[in-house]
Amino acid sequence: MACSKLFSGDLPELINEIIQYFHYDYKTLHSCIFVNRLWCRLAIPLLWEDPFSIEFPKNYYFIEIYLNNLNDDDKVKLNEYIIHNELFPLNTLFNYPRFIKHLDAYKVSNSIEKWYEIIELILQNRNFIYNIKNLALKLDKANDNIIKFLEFLCSNCNSISSLYFPLPSYNNYPIIEKYLSQIIKSQENLKMISFGYGYGCSLYHPLLSLNNLNCSNTLNTIIFYYINFKNINVLSEVFNQLNVLESIHIVYCYHLDSKFIQQINNIIKPFKLKSLFLDEVNYESLEPLMQKSGQILPFKLEYLNLCLNLINANDLKFFLKNSQNIFIKKLLIKNTMNENCQNNIFPYIKEYIMKKKRIKYLAIRETLCSKSEDLFFSKDKVKEFELYGIQVLNYDDLVIDIYSFIIETY
């Protein structure tokens, strides 16, 4: 039935049925919006049907999105209460208010009060953040209060050790980028930095900001997640100056192509990649990318998760062959196949992984026409791997949730 729906063009209907199972699982729904446009369009209504009642910690930014949908007369009224138009986003992807299904007046009032108080409270009590160690900057606008706050951070907070920075929308990024670079340069003990969601934003200046004496001798961890590396060409220049860098994490990033590989090859110091998440790799670039990735990986990798759409199993063979001297503690392979998929991957798994005893934990899931098979349930194959000291686990038990990973690392 699932296959018939798939080939009859009912894929959106199937995906919608799947996403409905995540109702009230806000972390999973939030992950869904970054898969593609279809998943985003299906997940957004569930996320926004009752935002005032979500029990997870809030940043209350969603209130500004609602205010943007007010008519002009109502916005004029807000101006009388010193709630100005620059607080509202210039545009939104959806008409979010129409998704609301549950409304509690008390919760709405309480959320609005907290939203308006947060930045004002910080600016009025600056001693509160002088000695902060961990800073998460989740900004998508650049109003006067935000600018004042960023200026204060640049001038007064130089003991930050962990900086978590999801990049803002493209329109506001140039202004915020300037202050982000200044914040980085002003730090005396920055040990970890995370950059995320940079679809159209350049990391040129923030990365170059790491090229200072303080960061060179303190920064030991860098995380890139959902970053577009297409126009980033300073990786080797920056990484060659970081003397104590111990851990690099690349999580679902884009354009890991030959230009990216060449930058990595130009790094003189060891490229200490600890975690690599790959997804939605185009077939045209799959073979050279897997060959090159296998050649540049470090001799020991803690976790490698390959989400593939293989047409020919030889593509995986190239990667495994070129990385056969690397020990991988946890290897996960999720292979989505179609009717044209040639051969199977297990002969290459046996030749380059099993017999060489180069991994400790293995999880493999293959999907064809919405039907999934997990290696964990193939008892004969599991026993065969055990003879070589490899423990086969259920894919769901071994996979790392991206958001949990970032939060725990941060």
Characterize this entry briefly.
With 410 residues, the chain is of the alpha/beta class.
Structural class: alpha/beta
Please give the alpha-carbon distance between the first and last residues. 44 Å
Fraction of residues in H or I helices: 40-55%
H and E string? HHHHHHHEHEHEHHEHEHEHEHEHEEHEHH
CATH topology of the largest domain: Leucine-rich repeat, LRR (right-handed beta-alpha superhelix)
Number of self-contained structural domains: 3
CATH C-level class of the largest domain: Alpha Beta
Protein name: F-box domain-containing protein
Organism: Rhizophagus irregularis
What brief labels describe this structure?
globular, 42% helix, 11-stranded mixed sheet, single chain, 19 helices, alpha/beta, Leucine-rich repeat, LRR (right-handed beta-alpha superhelix), 3 domains, 410 residues
Task: Explain what you see.
It comes from Rhizophagus irregularis. This is F-box domain-containing protein. The chain is of the alpha/beta class and 410 residues long. It has 3 domains: 117 residues, no CATH class; 145 residues, Leucine-rich repeat, LRR (right-handed beta-alpha superhelix) (Alpha-Beta Horseshoe); 139 residues. Helices cover 42% and strands 17% of the residues. Strands 1, 2, 3, 4, 5, 6, 7, 8, 9, 10 and 11 form an 11-stranded mixed β-sheet that branches. Helix 16 links the parallel strand 8 and strand 9. It is globular and about 75 Å long. The two termini are 44 Å apart.
